[in-house]
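tokens incoming
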């Protein structure tokens, strides 16, 4: 499971009132540091890799800042900066106070006309005319003024009365060669997001997806429907190819995934090709992909088990699990095993390598593409590693996120209840050369940046149907 939290920032050109709560950041940092060091299963690996001296020097620098920090949002950002020393997934800390991270600005009208004729000619970079679904078209222009803004996006077309032509809807700021943006919502409040240029014709601002307007007419509406759905979908793309779209492996989605595959199993197994679209699936629970395994299976699948760090806090997390009656019996067995090995790493499942065998091998689909990108993490990466062992499967897309080796996330509140820490209780038994944290999984077929995300299904369908068995 990946954890992302957008922090609302004070816009540099729009006055705003802040209602942030105060905190004792130094005490919260000492609690965070002690709790993480004692209970996180990945802590030891990071220290072994980066060294004790480097870690202590970094922690000392954070301590110095924490001593003079009392504003909640600043403290939250500082604490998260400390967690980034260890890894980029299955870790983090967030504020439990809505007052610390939300506000609405008092607006000052801000407008800027752009040269749409010139911007329409631009086909690379941030500048150009961009479309946000069917609601807005923005002209994004490079600035040459004295402000801290690098680019500004003003309204060219709007289908809502709240926004008028020429009004600035987005402002880009550059810091350490990275772009962030203040994006103004429909009610003119704003969020601050990271900015990522996915391709020459696609821009991602937080969760907001922009497409270069000149390319909109060439996009198949089905591609957009599939990419942005929050439901499991099964679609026939042609008489040769079926598609299964799964945006999440959260356990709450398991029933829906199982039902969709069961309902369409006859159609799926009567087509030569299958595309499994897992783009931006941040993971969830491994058993959520159990109904996919028979479709990809050609030979026994093996994967490494994990070991849990046996600490009182981690054992309490097991005791607090909400589970079925049968699962609780198993959990009690695990708890006893952890309690017998205090302070040790414990393999609860006995075998270091687990083997999955299926009795049946489906003739069709005979060729399977699994679509992946940098939004694929955790349990999704576990499925990808298992799928790669099938002779039917090719992984297609871009590198995955890389957050699997340190896993089984739990949470704990700070003593003042102002913050919640996310950390991991287990680590993989895979040898170091097979670990993927911070690296990700490289696809068998890399989709070039020139192919828009809204053309990936077209790309995959064309390629899989052109292949010979």
């Amino acid at each position: 499971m990946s954890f992302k939290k957008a922090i609302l920032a004070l816009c540099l050109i729009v006055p705003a009132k802040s209602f942030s709560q105060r905190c004792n950041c130094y005490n919260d940092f000492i609690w965070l540091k002690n709790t993480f060091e004692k209970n996180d299963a990945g802590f030891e690996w990071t220290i072994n890799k980066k060294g004790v001296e480097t870690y202590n020097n970094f922690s000392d620098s954070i301590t110095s800042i924490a001593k003079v920090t009392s504003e909640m949002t600043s403290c939250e950002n500082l604490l998260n900066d400390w967690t980034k020393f260890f890894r980029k997934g299955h870790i983090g800390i967030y504020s439990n106070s809505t007052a610390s991270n939300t506000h609405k600005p008092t607006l000052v009208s801000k407008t800027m006309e752009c040269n749409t004729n010139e911007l329409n000619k631009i086909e690379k970079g941030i500048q150009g005319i961009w479309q946000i679904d069917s609601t807005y078209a923005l002209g994004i222009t490079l600035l040459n003024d004295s402000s801290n803004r690098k680019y500004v996006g003003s309204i060219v077309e709007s289908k809502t009365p709240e926004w008028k032509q020429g009004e600035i809807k987005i402002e880009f700021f550059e810091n350490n060669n990275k772009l962030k943006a203040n994006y103004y919502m429909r009610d003119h409040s704003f969020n601050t997001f990271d900015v990522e240029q996915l391709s020459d014709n696609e821009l991602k601002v937080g969760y907001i997806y922009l497409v270069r307007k000149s390319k909109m007419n060439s996009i198949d509406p089905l591609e957009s429907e599939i990419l942005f759905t929050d439901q499991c979908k099964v679609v026939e793309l042609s008489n040769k190819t079926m598609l299964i779209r799964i945006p999440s492996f959260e356990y709450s989605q398991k029933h829906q995934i199982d039902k969709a595959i069961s309902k369409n199993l006859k159609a799926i197994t009567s087509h030569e090709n299958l595309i499994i679209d897992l783009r931006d699936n941040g993971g969830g629970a491994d058993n959520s992909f159990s109904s996919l395994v028979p479709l990809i299976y050609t030979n026994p699948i093996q994967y490494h088990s994990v070991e849990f760090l046996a600490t009182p806090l981690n054992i309490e997390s097991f005791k607090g699990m909400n589970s079925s009656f049968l699962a609780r019996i198993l959990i009690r067995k695990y708890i006893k095993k952890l309690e017998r090995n205090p302070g040790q790493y414990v393999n609860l499942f006995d075998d270091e390598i687990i083997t999955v065998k299926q009795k049946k091998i489906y003739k069709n689909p005979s060729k399977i593409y699994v679509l992946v990108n940098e939004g694929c993490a955790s349990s999704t990466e576990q499925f990808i590693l298992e799928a790669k062992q099938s002779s039917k499967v090719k992984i297609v897309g871009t590198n995955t996120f890389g957050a699997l080796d340190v896993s089984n996330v739990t949470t704990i509140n700070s003593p003042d209840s102002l913050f919640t820490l996310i950390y991991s209780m287990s680590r993989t038994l895979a040898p170091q050369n097979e670990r993927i944290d911070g690296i990700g999984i490289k696809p068998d077929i890399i989709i070039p940046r020139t192919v828009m995300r809204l053309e990936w299904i077209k790309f995959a369908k064309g390629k899989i149907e052109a292949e010979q068995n």
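note: Residues 221-412+420-466 form a domain with the 2-enoyl-CoA Hydratase; Chain A, domain 1 fold (CATH 3.90.226.10).
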